[in-house]
Amino acid sequence: MKINPYQPDQSGMAYSVGTTLDRFIKFKQSDFPFASGELSQLLRDIALAAKIVNRETNRAGLANIGGAFGQTNVQGEEQQKLDVIANIRFMRALSKGGEVCAIVSEEEDAVIDLKNKSGKYVVAIDPLDGSSNIDVNISIGTIFSIYRRKTPLGSPIQMEDIMQPGSEQVAAGYVLYGSSTMLVYTTGFGVNGFTYETSLGEFFLSHPQIKAPKSGKIYSINEGLELDWQEGIKNYIDECKAKRYAARYIGSLVADFHRNLLKGGIYLYPATKNNPNGKLRLLYEANALAFIAEQAGAKATDGKSRILDIVPDSLHQRTPLLIGSEEMVDQAIKHIEKSKISATV
106: annotated binding-site residue? Predict the structure, then answer.
């Protein structure tokens, strides 16, 4: 019997379709010997829910699932129909997998206890960020953070399992639903991005080991709130304009962050007169993106402290956020600190 060793076909017809998310997760499972496969399965569950939400967003205009739902969430914000749908999809995926013991969602006023005695992980999630943009076909996203529970398995969920600083995250990521759908995540070993191939129903590695530029020429901020900014923020934005930087603000956090992560730039949602504690949520928005940013060589702060060092004191705690290329964030902080010194003189 003749036996030949396998040799990959190098012809043009045999181009590689790439590495799937599932295979990539399996390759990287050795990074977490303590996880016994649960974290890998949890990431797969999130990817599955993302595929379903991607389908729903693509048919929103045809299935009458765009527009307002008619209720407000715990933040006092009007819920969109797709907010509710995305929340349901991710809740189902996370509850059925068996790896999660509790969920914190932007759309829920309390912690959701899954009563899963063997669940090692807590997930904090914004199921659909920027959903008010659905009706005008602008990119939206999902943001998630994953923490290991602190209390022993089998015991009731406690606040110490939930109120963990971002530095305790074991994984975080986001899904961007736009011209293409991408899942970007980190487990503390760099940042990798996967693009969804609809005909195959798979996420494929498209952006390995993402590194943010040290600086950039893009700033993203809601300039309609300029009259409410602190002096340091005003001065920094004036500097950006003087340097002829490009102003790019979509109004969808995931989309603005993603662009700046790849191209170099800074996203700012500072404290204002109406929102002195900021507007973005710490547990399921700022922490996840800050973890990704730092793993990609970027930076995230509330203007005073590193985002990942902030210990939360409430479930839906808000925070100012300055996030992006390291040199740009550092320069913004200099303006903030300088304005404080001037105010005390």
Answer: yes
Whether 249 has a binding-site annotation, put simply, is yes
User: 285 a known binding residue?
Assistant: yes
Rounded distance between C-alpha atoms, residue 288 and residue 106, angstroms: 14
Residue 269 annotated in ligand binding: yes
Q: 272, 266, 261: which is closest to 237 by C-alpha?
A: 266
> Was 279 annotated as part of a binding site?
yes
Q: What is the pTM of this model?
A: 0.91
Q: Measuring CA to CA, how many Å separate 92 from each of 240, 267, 288, 295, 332?
A: 44, 32, 21, 29, 41
The annotation status of 130 as a binding-site residue, yes or no, is yes
pLDDT, tens digit (0-9, with 9 covering 90-100), for 224-259: 999 999 999 999 999 999 999 999 999 899 999 999
The C-alpha atoms of residue 318 and residue 300 are separated, in whole angstroms, by 15
Is residue 119 marked as binding? no
The conformational region for residue 105 under phi > 0 = left, psi -120 to 50 = alpha, else beta, is: beta
Cβ(202)–Cβ(190) below 8 Å: no
- pLDDT digit string, tens, across residues 332-343: 999 999 988 766
C-alpha–C-alpha distance, residues 316 and 303, integer Å:
19
Q: List CB contacts of 341: < 8 A, sequence separation 6 or more.
A: none
179 phi and psi angles, rounded to 5 deg: -60, -30
Q: Is 213 helix (H, G, I), strand (E, B) or coil?
A: coil
Is 222 labelled as part of a ligand binding site? yes
Partner residues linked to 171 by β-bridges: 146
